[in-house]
Amino acid sequence: MACNKKPFQMTDDEIKKEISVPGIHTTEKFDVASLFAIVTNILKPATIAADNVIRGTKQPHMEIKGERVIATSFIPPLCTLKELSYEMVCKDPSEETAYKTTKSILEKLKNYSWHVRAVLTLAAFTLDYGDFCRHLDQFHSSDQLTKSMGILKGIPALLTRPSIDYNHESAIVEVNKLIKDTLNVIDCIVTLEERCVKYNPKDVPALSIATDNISVYVFWAIITVVVCTTRMCCLIKDERKTQELSRFAEKINAIHVKLKLQIQLCNEEIEKIEAYWKLIRFLKEPLDIVEVLKVLLFASDNRQQVKIFHNELILEAVKTKKVLLFFSGMDVDNITEYVSILNPIYEKVTSNNEYKIVWIPIVEQWTIEMQKKFELLRSKMSWFVVQNFSSTSAIKYVKEQWHYKNEPIIVALNSQGTVEHYNAVHMIKIWGTSAFPLTHRRDEELRKREDWFGSLVIEFSADISTWIKEEKHIFFYGGKDSTWIKEFCKEATGLANDDVKGARISLFNVGKDSGIERRFWKLIDNFFLYKSHMVTEVGTVTKEIQKLLSYKNEKGWVVLCKGARLVFSGYGTTVLTVLKNFDEWKQCLNDSAFSFEVCLEKYYNEQLREDGLPCRDFDIPKIDGLLIPNCRKCPDCSEIMEMSIRFKCCHQNQHGFNLNCSHNNGHVTKVQLKEKVSPVSLVCGMTVTAACESHCQNKC
Fold first, then answer.
1. CA–CA distance from 132 to each of 80, 217, 442, 659 (Å)?
2. pTM of whole model > 0.85?
């Protein structure tokens, strides 16, 4: 039975199980802070008064430091306190009885939260103990009321003139100290509860750990108050049998040490949170770029001293300037690639002196190896470099507000310190120096450009620039099969030499130079990420990019441009068949107003219907921080592509291909998520794939 329980023989888990009483915390408002303030304001001077009596000293009234404020409207729960006081007094001095009493108190207070139960129990004890200490201190007063009240409190049993009986001295000292220690424990419990109200445990993980055993700590605080009450009753009644307190004192002290450490850990985390919130408030409406860099780079919570290279005062240099903050890790190959991309940008911004570039590597721990990497990378850069960027709040801000996820980002700030673009990396990668100004508005303009393909490939050859200016039809082609490439080159060259109505044709073999081919697919990958970030609808440009990505591992592929505009792309084998059969469809050009590209696409689509459209699938590189949409539509039939690892659509209904027209809303789509994918952070170095087999029921 519960009354036979001995708490010192029980584990924390066993105690938790025993004291877990079903019930809902009271919905009534209860000012526990004011009640605890009263308890503290009574016990601190009361225990001092008891100590003075024992030492035989009499000190004048003095203000107690840290006296707590009590709400003027506070009404104490006197009935509850009297009931609890009655529950504790005049009990047999035994561990089992103390346990039974504690269980009874917890049952009475089951509708209160744990910290309130502890405060109410201590308050009930304080009603009697505060009075006891005051009358102990003033018993020799000539005031008849004070003397009479002291007699009722049992003071004469403790005193022999002119001082306290030696036999009772150690008992009062022990109770007095244990009550002070218990007050400290409950103070810690109340402090943790206040922290839980103010802060989310998700933001302060130490809070969750600290509060996990609160019920056990409250149990030991209450049972300690119970045994102190029993000890005082034995003392006043002058009974030989008494309550042993030493084991309770050891337990309370151990809990106090643990709680102080947990509160310290919580405070350290809270300090970081407060610094982070302060940073958010400040950067919400910045004054100027200098102030922004000052709070980011030179924050008070930097773990190491920040160093700035190259030998120029950065805050002085950025006044009235726009700033590009380049955040990254310390991957040498990756950052070296970015340096090569940023070098022409640096030359441009240096010439007009409008922008400053600052590289800020984010490193968890600066080791000797990291230092070597840093020095190597720093030697490649002509712009500002920051070492030891270690402010916890600033790093958290960059990760959460500017979405840094281990992959490099470039945050563009204006001279007022306001963000003009949260990540201009893809703008710069795709458009280079023509991306300026690096703003979201400019970004939107670039995304809508119709000459995007020509802008990407113009750097590969001076001939391309000439052909674009002349508005020629340009075949770009490549693939894995060298035989196909030779055959296509032969057929396309013959077509170029033929007098084709409305077409002046030129050819460019993307695969003739492995460096150009790698650069080409890198640009297409980047442009896909640039265009499709959190966009699920397949616009014309996004559709063409997805097609291009699906050609990457084909035997052959073809892109046709009219000037800088991409007007057609297709599978190499099918395009080759169409070109070989040019005589069958050349009449299309002569008998109609259709352009060369329209006729080519018309017969290409007819050939696809005859051959059967291959599955459309493509991979994209995994990048930390890239947000992948929940779904993506197929560029051929507009069906939702199934998301697993790879983007893939096999158009099982061959009549549903959206080759020349769009479907209406009558289609049926089957979507199966093999792996739940919402906007997620992906691990660098792997391949994102998604799989989909959709069925389109409507015919074109």
1. 20, 27, 79, 95
2. no
